[in-house]
Here is the input.
Amino acid sequence: MAQVTIGKRSREAALKTMKHLIETEFPDPVLRLDASKSGSQQPDLNTVYTQYNLIKPPFSMAIMARLLDLDPYLSGAVDAVATNVSACKMYLEYTGDGDAPEEQEKTLHEFFFESSDPTNPMSLQEKIKACAVDYISLGNWNLEITGTGKRLIDLVHAPAEFVRVTKGMAGYMMVKDATKIDFSLYGGAQSGDTNQILRAINKMPGHRVYGKPLTYSLVNTVLMNSLRDEKNLDWFDQGVLADLMVLVEESIDEAIKQRIVTDFQNTSDGTQTMYILDGVGKGVIEQIKRELEGKSFDTMEENNRQRVLTALRVPPAKVAIYEDANRANTLTQDEVFQSEVIKPIQGTFKVRFDHLIKHGFGFNNWEFKMKPISLKDRKAEAEIDKIYLDSAVYNLNDVLIRLGMKPTPNGDRRLINTPLGLVDVDTWEIAVADPTQNPAATAERLAKNNAIGLIVRLAELRQELQKETGHTCDTIHS
Here is the structure.
């Protein structure tokens, strides 16, 4: 007698399972606040938001905040964007006439670049990176402004996961660790009794309150792949195998086979498939199953990676190393990535920081600058600096300040390199290596470099300066 084995593929409600996990393990912060206060069962979402007079987000903050933990490609791509936003040269530039007011420069430098938070000190790069991750994954970023009275002291990262907007856009509330803090949007002067925040949102149709996360379109992809991964051997079957499979050890009568087919047709919904296989077919299907499992992993990984990179517009070389990568193409992709993805996000910080400098501190003619720097840029800048130094367009302190280093005494003299040594272009006096101290060496350098013409010209310029000013060069120098 033939032995028959029937296996039917299960269809579980995967999203329902994920929804349950989110509601029980990672509920909305506002729900957690209300539950901790009442000590009762978790209340209804709409009821709680109404109770606190808040606008309900159009998506689950809990899901979006933890989406990065579920997929390595998404996590790597978001980190690549956030790192490129923050890993740049940030500095304050005075655009007014004359020298920058030292007191203003010191005040702004302390506020932006020196953290005053005793519990969690962060550099400006760290704050901006955390804000960039919020902007990408939650659609907005927030920085709390701390101060004493009207004196601004520091910027503190306020996680977007915990920030909610009150109805009427009248204010904001941050709910964290079963406590809430009320904020107002920064609009000019810091008030001593009001907490204020700087805030930027990625405004899109339907997302004009909380902003649209750049990862929003990847929710279904990441969740489904994560659930399939947890199911291990069940997840790989994506419709290629039959919904109903009948394996027979020995051949069976054709009439019995037809009866099985008829029964399946009467009980299925018309969209399912069925295989009837004999003993030989059983071995074949087992091999197919093993091959499909391996190929499904590869296909899923490739498709998921492509969706993530496309949604965030991240070049593949930013999240992985490819042996056959084309260097020229990679550089071109990086330039597009910097100008079309990174620069707009950096602009959200620059606009708000400039506004804060002008209206919060009352300082005019100051700009906050964010300049991305790559190895290619650094090499080009170093070559330009050398040309400007050699031609006395820059002085030494100009370069030191641009590099974030302290200026050196007498480094503000503009010098040009000549066979006689360094010459001050403002006085045309020899600044270093006076030839009178070593005539033999000077004569040798002049002969070697054929610099007689330059020396004659320097002498003529010296005489012209004396005639025009009526002073000797020694007097001019002093």
Remarks:
- Residues 279-312 form the longest helix (34 residues).
- The first strand starts at residue 4 and ends at 8.
- The CA atoms of residues 107 and 361 lie 9 Å apart.
- Residues 413-478 form one domain.
